[in-house]
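User: quick one, fold this
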Amino acid sequence: MPQPQTLQVARALILPFTVVLAWLVLNTHYTAHVLGACAVVFVGFVVGVWGEVEPSALGIVFGVASSVTTALHAIVIKRSLAVVEDQTLVLAYYNNVLSMVYLLPVVVLAEFPALTNALTGNVSATFVCGTLVAVRTECMMAYGSATSLTLPDTFVVVSAISHSVD
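Assistant:
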């Protein structure tokens, strides 16, 4: 299992990946100060990974993948805002509705036994608490996306929850 420290260090690459991908996809040009900041972040990544006693290759891979997908998400949001006339709440609404439609079959198929137990009255405290935490976390993430905030502590929260449920 990757160590959270390695994953968090690799997730710090969101800024450089966002700048590079925005340049490639959106043809955005940045100042030398922004490029210098990206260089500092990259050097911090290298120092952070080398500074660990046992750096996790899996943590680095997942952290870099997370940074790339988060950067791509920011670019998609930037392009999508033009479609909804820069109204972030409208975009968040569309995002939530489409996510619900897309994920509903997945949730029903993957969670069918737990849903069956819940509907027949065999509700465990773990199921109820896990559902409430998941809904609350999703609401916070949706609000963060709508207001263009980043949530670097999401991994820490999800990691803590997964360890408490196990």
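User: anything notable?
Assistant: Residues 86-166 form one domain.
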